[in-house]
Amino acid sequence: MLFLSRKYQVLLAFPILYLATTPAFADALSQTIQTESSIQKSAIKSQKNIDGIDDRTRKMLEQYRSATRQTKTLLTYNEHLKALLESQEAEKASFEQQLEQIETTQREIVPLILNMQQSLEQFVQLDLPFLPDERHQRITRLKEMIPRADVTNAEKFRRIIEAYQIENDYGNTIESYRANIELAGETSSVDFLRLGRVALYYQRLDGSETGFWNITTNRWETLPAEYRNSIRQGLRIARKEAAPDLLTLPVSTATGAAQ
Fold first, then answer.
1. Which residue from 195, 211, 194, 214 is spatially nearest to 203, judged by alpha carbons?
2. Has residue 11 got a pLDDT over 50?
3. Among 32, 93, 215, 222, which is disulfide-ready with 211 (CB 3.0 to 4.6 Å)?
């Protein structure tokens, strides 16, 4: 190991101190400092540029991802619209076919309605004469409705079917009602008893006379007094004033005899 005395140490430090105080060394040192400062500034500026590029890159990446998601959404929506359009085209073709069928049905349903109305009118005329006013008014309303332009064919057909249903229900029920009847040239108020479409009976309000409608002769005929109680009981059952029970009543046959 080399050891120097304090004398030589002082002598060695003197040249260094001397060099530091010379103008050339000061200029070099200043240039070095400036260069270092410039490098640092450039590095800071470069880092800022890098940070800016990184931010822009992230924004562009996010925009790309957003555009990709929107593209997928639009593609899915376009597929849905395509399927919807195809469905609408099929529905349109179906509607056009239905319109053609409706026109054909319109031409065919009018004669059908007219035939049904005429058949119903003839049926009522040939049927038992119960509720004559109510049934004839229904037929009259149908006849007045059919030529009307403000009533659709669908409504006309519905009303015809409704009338047929009412007439059909008459055949499955029993009924009691009070109305006027012409007997022996006089109009009298009587109680009527209808048993489906099998038989139609009447009884004076005081019970003094009982009769039935003869389907062969198409006229009212009186019944023996023995049937008065049965008719009276049948009226009470029809009015729900008595429980259903067996009744012994005459029935008009095709030959016109009451059995």
1. 211
2. no
3. 222
Contacts of 201 (CB under 8 A, 6+ apart): 192, 193, 194, 195, 210, 211, 212, 213, 223, 231, 234, 249
User: What would the two tokens of residue 253 be?
Assistant: 């046959």
Q: What integer pLDDT is reported at residue 72 of this predicted model?
A: 87
Q: Which residues of 6-41 are buried (b: 16+ CB within 10 A; e: fewer)?
A: eeeeeeeeeeeeeeeeeeeeeeeeeeeeeeeeeeee
The pTM (predicted TM-score) of the whole model is 0.59
Q: Are residues 184 and 227 in the same domain?
A: yes
Q: Which residue, of 130, 151, 170, is where some domain finishes? A: 170
Q: Once rounded to an integer, what is the mean pLDDT over residues 58-84?
A: 87
The residue whose two tokens read 């019970």 is 207
In the chain, how many domains are there? 2
Residue 115 within any structural domain of the chain: yes
Residue 138: per-residue pLDDT: 95
Burial label, 110 (beta-carbon count in 10 A; 0-12, 13-18, 19+):
middle
Residue 210 sits at φ, ψ, to 5 deg, of -130, 145
| pLDDT for res 22 | 67
The pLDDT confidence band at residue 101, using thresholds 50, 70 and 90, is confident
- pLDDT band at residue 251 under the 50/70/90 scheme: confident
Asked if residue 13 is part of any domain, the answer here is no
Residue 176 CA to residue 76 CA, distance in Å, equals 71
Residues 6+ apart with CB under 8 A from 214: 220, 221, 252, 256, 258
Domain housing 208: 174-238
- Structure token pair of residue 144: 């007045």
Rg (CA), the chain: 57
